[in-house]
Amino acid sequence: AQERPNDRHPNPNFVKDDIRHRNRSRESLVRMELDRISEEHPMHDQNSQVNKVNKNREICVCRLKTRAVQLSTDHSTSLEEEVLRIKAEHVDDNQTIINDRVKGQLKVTRAFGAGFLKKPRCNEALLEMFRIDYVGTAPYISCFPSILHHRLSSSDHFLVLSSDGLYQYFSNEEVVAH
């Protein structure tokens, strides 16, 4: 077979890495995702304040109890409270939630970025084909965090910070088991 110019990627390792990535088992994907988006939190400070915004979920593993303790709430359309909040802020818009997504676009209800769902002028700056039908001026999604204060103890082993992508596929227990 003759190689064509379009068959080559500028970075040949990218293609190899992509093939390797696709061939990994579910367990390996967990490890890769944890390596990529989780951070080990230094536990020398007895108090830890957790800010929950966007797609992140923080869980703390208590060694003595050998279980994952979820310290944050997933702010998404899966939470009825979040859906009701958005609908209450947009009573004139009967299409605030479409296919379990805010304006049919985003599953998370609190996020940094996504300005087109926060301000009409950001929505208007998009190409017409990407715009949403923005009704009113209130934001559809929020960037206001919910804050939880958690006192760390010697039984807390580590803290996992990650995006919602990880938790679409794995439970808290599956994540901390690896």
UniProtKB/TrEMBL annotation:
<dbReference type="GO" id="GO:0004722">
    <property type="term" value="F:protein serine/threonine phosphatase activity"/>
</dbReference>
<dbReference type="InterPro" id="IPR015655">
    <property type="entry name" value="PP2C"/>
</dbReference>
<dbReference type="Pfam" id="PF00481">
    <property type="entry name" value="PP2C"/>
</dbReference>
<dbReference type="InterPro" id="IPR036457">
    <property type="entry name" value="PPM-type-like_dom_sf"/>
</dbReference>
<feature type="domain" description="PPM-type phosphatase">
    <location>
        <begin position="1"/>
        <end position="178"/>
    </location>
</feature>
<dbReference type="InterPro" id="IPR001932">
    <property type="entry name" value="PPM-type_phosphatase-like_dom"/>
</dbReference>
<feature type="region of interest" description="Disordered">
    <location>
        <begin position="1"/>
        <end position="22"/>
    </location>
</feature>
<protein>
    <recommendedName>
        <fullName>PPM-type phosphatase domain-containing protein</fullName>
    </recommendedName>
</protein>
